[in-house]
Amino acid sequence: MIGLIKNLFNNKEVLVFILGMMPVSELRGAIPAGLAMGLPLKNVLLLAIAGNLVPVIPMLLLFEPVSARIRKLRLFKKFFDWFFERTRKKADLIEKYEVLGLAIFVGIPLPITGAWTGCVAATMFKIKFKYALPAIIAGILTAALIVTAACIFGKGAWITVQKFS
Fold first, then answer.
1. How many whole angstroms separate alpha carbon 153 and alpha carbon 18?
2. How far apart are CA 100 and CA 6, in angstroms?
3. 149 CB contacts (<8 Å, ≥6 apart)?
């Protein structure tokens, strides 16, 4: 069992996929990490996007009922009150433009945006699943393009700077 776990984390592709799934890194961390590990761009994009998509459907379907039950416990109530308030403050765009705002919110690769927070915001603002899912997918694809362009441009700029140093 330990050998299996060790092999999983030595596998660059699995790492990119897991980074794409994680709420803090999502594909914003997975794409630069995969490229830095020397993986082909096509593989990095597919793995990062797939990883970022994995939690979306469960989050959209289960976040409300699970958080409602957990919030009954005092410790978790404080956390969720803080989390909802933080999300509400960052989600003006979603509140104003609803589905389009959700897609833009998820697609802008900044801290406290992304698919995880987008799912929470969609739940908070009662955006129906059939509208929230395509908006979040569009946002994920947009973020993937922006992050990839930033990585490619950043690498090119770094090489140029090194040539003139």
1. 25
2. 42
3. none
Q: Which residue has the higher pLDDT, 165 or 51?
A: 51
Over residues 56-75, the mean pLDDT reads 93
What is residue 75's predicted lDDT score, i.e. its pLDDT?
83
Query: Looking at residues 134-147, what average pLDDT do you find?
Result: 98
Rounded CA separation 65/48 (Å): 28
pLDDT at residue number 8: 64
Looking at the predicted structure, is the pLDDT value of residue 3 above 50?
yes
Q: 127 vs 45, 131, 144, CA distance in Å? A: 28, 7, 23
Q: 56: exposed, middle or buried (C-beta count within 10 Å: 0-12, 13-18, 19+)?
A: buried
Rg (CA), the chain: 18
* Structural tokens at position 104: 């833009």
Domain spans of the chain, in order of start: 1-54, 56-165
Q: Compute the Cα dihedral for 39, 13, 108, 102 and give only its sign.
A: positive
What DSSP line would sit under 78-126, residue for residue?
HHHHHHHHHHHHH-HHHHHHHHHHHHHHHHS-STT-SHHHHHHHHHHTT
Residue 159 has pLDDT above 70, yes or no: no
